[in-house]
Design a protein that fits this description.
four-stranded mixed β-sheet; GMP Synthetase, Chain A, domain 3; 4 strands
């Protein structure tokens, strides 16, 4: 999680989306938040965008689409196949702010708010067998999806 955040922050600076001074402040704030143990707040992008207002998340998503040639997706409007819902590693998804959401032959579709982070890309490339098509999404979209998935898993566990 920390590596994904560090490299995401570095990518934001490298692509001139934030200033190094803002990133330094966001990293300090991230360390405070990590101690509280709330996965949904463990995001340097969230701190930069919503606490510090140093970047707009929409600008990061637009950069992903324009400069990296990726797509964009709103997971709230997508029906994720059951095979992906059952095999999902929620901890890895929270740590990387990414969710594999479909597969077509040898191509995996991964929605990510952190697609600019080389650590996130490398992690999912080693986890998934085949090529990855990256789709940008928002932190809120990822968090809502994961919380919904966690709630469904708890409900299934208590029903059995």
């Amino acid at each position: 999680m920390m590596r994904a955040n560090r490299l995401m922050g570095a990518a934001l600076v490298e692509h001139n989306l934030v200033k190094i001074e803002d990133l330094d402040g966001a990293n300090e704030r991230l360390l405070e938040i990590v101690k509280q143990g709330q996965a949904r707040q463990n995001t340097v992008l969230g701190i930069l965008a919503y606490e510090m207002k140093a970047v707009r998340e929409e600008d990061v998503l637009q950069y992903h689409v324009d400069q990296q040639g990726g797509g964009a997706i709103d997971l709230r409007q997508y029906e994720v196949p059951e095979e992906y819902q059952k095999g999902i590693d929620i901890g890895a998804c929270w740590a990387t702010w990414s969710v594999p959401f479909d597969r077509e032959e040898d191509f995996h579709f991964v929605a990510s708010a952190y697609s600019l982070s080389p650590a996130v890309q490398k992690y999912w490339e080693t986890q998934l067998d085949g090529s990855i098509l990256w789709f940008g999404t928002t932190l809120e979209g990822i968090a809502d999806y994961l919380e919904k998935h966690e709630s469904a898993a708890v409900a299934d566990a208590t029903a059995t």
